[in-house]
TrEMBL record, chains A, B:
Pfam families, per database record: CbiC (PF02570)
Similarity remark: Belongs to the CobH/CbiC family.
InterPro entries: Cbl_synth_CobH/CbiC, CobH/CbiC_sf
GO terms, biological process: cobalamin biosynthetic process
Keyword Metal-binding tagged: no
Pathway listed: Cofactor biosynthesis; adenosylcobalamin biosynthesis
UniProt keyword terms in alphabetical order: Cobalamin biosynthesis, Isomerase
Entry annotated with the keyword Isomerase: yes
Gene Ontology MF annotations: precorrin-8X methylmutase activity
Cobalamin biosynthesis precorrin-8X methylmutase CobH/CbiC domain boundaries: 12-208
Name of this chain's protein: Cobalamin biosynthesis precorrin-8X methylmutase CobH/CbiC domain-containing protein
Highest taxon, organism lineage: Bacteria
């Protein structure tokens, strides 16, 4: 453990952190795909957990596809205000994108109650009503992934991309497998781990990595 | 891996999750202190990471002290909007508490710039100006912990309690050791791991665990 405070210029800390992550991945004999690398590294940067190097699952050309969507103004829909708070909304707005968290909206809860449906159902309807490509970033609720999968099966609504990283112990692993086996482009963290912070980190890595 | 979706009533999921966590801690031969247990378990619930059972450090009677503060209307100051978003503000308000994130305030940034000081300095001044007991919950910036420690050393400002769980690779471990060695009551996660989600989980466990 390093218990000595060293002076590092604030704008250098992130660079230094990514160097340390790169070195430790090398020591562990892990070689990441070059396109996926900035995304996986940012998740490790956010969690200090190298397990993610083994468990993140990318569908074919997932990073390129997500970046193209963002570049063309796709909106991001999260399942928690925490994930929404963690996403760099200014940078996203530069491409015309916005972040929504319908699940936490008071009026979504009210509408769900009065119609006798789940908040997830109403949230998906709101997402569909945006009438533009949508990236779903689910960091908390496996039920959101399960609802999403049902709507895709029924042909009601299919998002352009799914970031599926809920965390937990009940139905989390199974919900993620549903998305991994689907045709929708995705980044999913296999297993129990994930979180709103991981969802936000993946979104930010995708936004930051766009170069014209 | 459990890839079968099972129907669990939404209000049962958390209870079931905590049962699984309890069982797995037992299988690992880990016996938690009874008072700290709900806090440690909630962090594991938020991260699906059992490492926290070994690395969370509680100062003497930390949980009792933090709960007493909250019960008496202490405010919570976070270093990120993400941590703020994750804290159950309604429940906290029931005890007269509020959550602030001065670090992310636009006018704090402006004031820091015009005075040539750091945002952390201005944030601590704002916290001191609340004129009430303050719990600091730091999930992101080790520099916030270092500034806090400096102010404590200089006698400028001492919070009533510190939740010190920044995550990362540069100065994070050392910053946490400063707090562990201080006299301020604290809950700190030793090592690199932590995060805004962990900070929020600890705050919520403290708030939820208050019984009259």
């Amino acid at each position: 453990m390093n218990t000595q405070i060293e002076y590092v210029r604030p704008d250098e800390i992130e660079k230094r952190s990514f160097e340390i992550i790169g070195r430790e991945l090398e020591q562990r004999g892990i070689v990441l795909d070059a396109v996926q690398e900035p995304v996986t590294k940012r998740v490790i940067h956010t969690t200090a957990d190298f397990d993610y190097a083994d468990t993140l699952v990318y569908s074919e050309n997932a990073v390129e596809k997500a970046r193209n969507l963002i570049k063309n103004g796709a909106h991001i829909v999260t399942d928690t205000n925490m994930a929404k708070a963690g996403i760099n909304k200014k940078r996203l707005a530069g491409y015309g994108g916005e972040v929504h968290c319908f699940m936490a909206d008071e009026d979504v809860a009210a509408e769900a109650k009065s119609r006798g449906v789940t908040r997830a159902t109403v949230s998906m309807e709101r997402a569909a009503a945006l009438h533009r490509p949508v990236i779903f970033a689910i960091g908390n609720a496996p039920t959101a992934l399960i609802s999403l999968h049902e709507m895709m099966q029924e042909g009601v609504f299919t998002p352009a991309f799914i970031i599926g990283v809920p965390v937990g112990f009940v139905n989390v692993e199974a919900a993620k497998e549903l998305i991994i086996q689907s045709d929708v482009p995705h980044i999913v963290n296999r297993g129990r781990k994930g979180g709103s912070n991981v969802a936000a980190a993946i979104c930010n890595a995708l936004v930051y990595g766009i170069h014209y």
